[in-house]
Each structure stands twice: as structure tokens, then as C-alpha cells.
Amino acid sequence: MNGALKELLDLLDLEQIEMNIFRGRSPEERQQRVFGGQVAGQALVAAGRTVPQDRHVHSLHAYFIRPGDPSVPLVYTVDRVRDGRSFTTRRVSAVQHGKVIFTLSASFQVLEDGPSHQAPMPEVPDPESLPTFRERLEKLFGPMADDFHRRRPVDLRHVTPLTWEAARDPSLTGPESKVWLRVDGELPDDPLLHVCLMTYASDMTLLDTVLLNHGLAWGDKKTMGASLDHAMWFHRPFRADQWLLYAQDTPNASGARGLARGEVFTREGELVVSVVQEGLIRTTGA
Known about the structure:
The chain is an alpha+beta fold. The chain is built from 6 helices and 12 strands. It has a 12-stranded antiparallel beta sheet. The longest helix is centred in the last third of the chain and has 15 residues. The chain is globular, with a radius of gyration of 19 Å.
């Protein structure tokens, strides 16, 4: 297990300071705001801590309201909205400096049988045949790759072009992005932990799909953005420490907002997660 993953697991291990109140922190590194996937993952941990273990999260809907301050703790308050016979609903608010910066509603369900179908998995190369994210950056930026990459808890292997590649070569732009991912280390058999880590990882590349379609890239000195809302549906069990294909596309961008969708498949072709996110994307003439 690499150090970045160990630190992420520590970040997800929230401190309970009162009934329905938890405290989390951010990584000790220079960043202007808290990563959205971190807040969503921590909020889901807080919700899950108040739910019986026989109930598993099947959906979440979240709003990013204000930028998070990485220099101070995040306080998560959990509202136990409903405890029914089959479903449990929780609402979580993340608070900093006395203001709500993020809200999440999550629904949990007991295991039940029913009809089953799914969309097919796209045909893509195996992850082992693809260069690592670090190798792709080194090919692009050479010695300057460190300016664009830090040690990550998630191993990413892009099937489709990186946004920086498409920014240099307009022929590589397009509305679809596919990436293999897995956390960089073996995890314990805790279903909630695997779901929370996928929640974290789901925010790493989704808005990139919008940028890819326009030849834009974070760090190009003309593009800025932020997650606005995020929704996920968990269809089937999975492990975040095994390869998962994240197939993403963007159906629309307008009004300085971009919409992106994602489907997550196991290596065996099972559809395990669906994701939708809208993000703010502003550009300048720089």
C-alpha cells in the first residue's frame, strides 16, 4: 500500500465527536480548496456510520455549495431522516467556519432480489497494456511532469487521450473518455470502504470529459472549474482495489456548466456504478 492510499484511508476514518457529528481533515499539502471527492467520500462515511451493517448504500445525491478550506477541519452532521423496513435515508452537511459547504443525501437498502439487466461494457484494451498516468505525463512534459502530478492513491490507466494531449492536438478531442482505475493497494473486506473510495475516485476524471471535447485542460491558464453537484447509483458489489473501467461521456455543455456521465464496470463486465456530475467551467482568452 503506497503512502498516498494510507493517508486517504486515514482521512476517511472520521473522528466521532458526538452522536451524529463527525470530524474530518484534509491532506497536509498545498492546495487552494478541498478536493470534492474527499468531501463526498467523508460525508458518505459519516452517513454509513449511522446505518445498520445489513443495509448498503444504493444512491447518493450531493451539492458542492462553497469551496472547502483545507487548513481547518470539516465537521459532518448527520440527519437521520428515515429508518424504514427496507430503506434508510440520511442527510449529511459538511460545515466549515460556521457555514455549510456541502450537502449529501444517501439512501441505504437491505439486500433484495428482483429483475436484472445492464448496459454492455465497452471493448477496451487491458489495463496492463496501457502506460501509467505518470508515464503519460512524462512523455508530455518531460522533467516538468512533477508540476502536474503528485503521488496518488488511485492508479489510473487512460484508454483515451488525456486533456493535455487533446489541447495540443485538436484531432484527439471528443465527447467520450475511458479510464481503468483501482486504488493502489490491497483493502480490507469492508463494503462501505470500497464504496467510499469509489466515490472519491469518481470525481477525479469526470469533468475532464467535458474539457476533452473542447481541447481544454486544467492548468492551461485559461480554464477554471469546480464540481457543482454529483450523483451516484451503486448497482452491484465491487472491490475498489481491483481494476474498474470508468466509461465517461458528456452530453451537454452550456451556460458555463458542463454535464458528464459515467458508468463503472468490473473487469468481468458487470455494471456496478453509474455517475452523473455537473460542473462549472469558465474560460478566458488567455
